[in-house]
Amino acid sequence: MSDLYTDPIGTATVAAAKLAQLTGKPHHDVALVMGSGWVSAADALGTPTHEFPATSLPGFLVPTVEGHGGLVRSYDLQGANGTIRALVFLGRTHLYEGKGVEPVVHGVRTAVKAGCKVVVLTNACGGINRDYKVGQPVLIRDHISMTAVSPLIGADFVDLTDLYSKRIRAILHEEDPTLAEGVYVHWRGPAYETPAEINFLRTVGADLVGMSTVPEAIAAHALGAEVLGISLVTNAAAGISGEKLSHLEVMAAGKAAAGKMGDLLSKVLHKL
Ligand code: 8IG
Fold first, then answer.
1. Does 74 fall in a domain?
2. Which residue owns the Cα nearest ligand 1 atom 11?
3. Residue 152 belongs to what domain range?
4. 126: domain CATH number?
5. Which of 13, 184, 196, 233 is most enclosed, with most CB atoms within 10 A?
6. Which of 265, 272, 266, 240 has its CA nearest to residue 137?
7. Helix (H, G, I), strand (E, B), or coil: what is residue 109?
8. For residues 215 and 124, what is the distance between their CA atoms, to the nearest angstrom?
9. Tell me: the pLDDT tens digits for 164-212?
10. Number of folded domains in the chain?
11. Which of 194, 240, 245 to mutate to test the pocket of ligand 1 (most atoms within 8 A of CB)?
12. Dihedral sign computed on CA atoms, order 109, 15, 262, 97
């Protein structure tokens, strides 16, 4: 096993130093993790100053899922108070890949070690709440971990009461008062839920279900970053529409909606 498993925080620190070297930027301010179909949202941020494979940095795995790029971009954005250095991950590692939780959270840990005070986590997910439409973005207000997998080890009893920053959610609502909020369930996958499981999850208060975001949110928060989570509903969860779930449809719905999300994200980044 590599250093990532025996010393995950140390490996993130080394990766952050390599990032500084590759970009010539001693630190970054904000990190964004782009889920399936969110690449066009990253494109809406403008032209990056740097782009390279995530595997150029220590501890990153070669990505496996189609549409999960495994690229890192660095942007200089013009904010109200000067330049905002944004670090964007196109693609992520998931628990269902079976490599453990360490690679899943390595990107956000690297970002926080690189100076990021805000971590924006995006994903594509299934809608459990019947009010949601395909293509709709939903802010994550809270989560339920159905994996119960934590990236934390030892007596790190972090409070998760305000895991998904109220402050940043309020900024998004100022920009777009129609944005919905919901509770996101982390489901390990790679199989989707059964219809019975979706009924169970709705009963316990879930609105959204997906296979990412939660371990990263916990890891980023534990290191002191503020977290924003945004889900793009790309399919009705199992048993709701009568249709079967297909990864290709999920990707198409994501691509169609992510452009407008990119515009929203760039407005929000300027206000952070
Ligand atoms: I996109 O319906 C996407 N990801 N668990 N269930 C789960 N993950 C998903 C779904 C879904 N849609």
1. yes
2. 126
3. 8-271
4. 3.40.50.1580
5. 184
6. 265
7. helix
8. 16
9. 999 999 999 999 999 999 999 999 999 999 999 999 999 999 999 999 9
10. 1
11. 245
12. negative
Cα 76 to chain centroid distance, Å, stands at: 20
Mutate to test the pocket of ligand 1, among 38, 138, 192 (most ligand atoms within 8 A of CB): 192
Can you read off the two tokens belonging to residue 244?
């079967």
Centre of ligand 1 from the C-alpha of residue 237, in Å? 7
Q: Which of the 8 DSSP states describes residue 26? A: S
Entry pTM: 0.94
Residue 10 tokens, joined:
């140390």
Tokens at 261, concatenated? 């999300």
Among 90, 46, 105, which Cα is nearest to 223's? 105
Cβ(124) to ligand 1 under 6 A?
yes
Separation of 224 CA from ligand 1 center, angstroms?
28
Helix, strand or coil for residue 253?
Answer: helix
Judge if the beta carbon of residue 84 lies within 6 A of ligand 1. Answer: no
Report strand pairing: 118-127 vs 226-236.
Answer: parallel
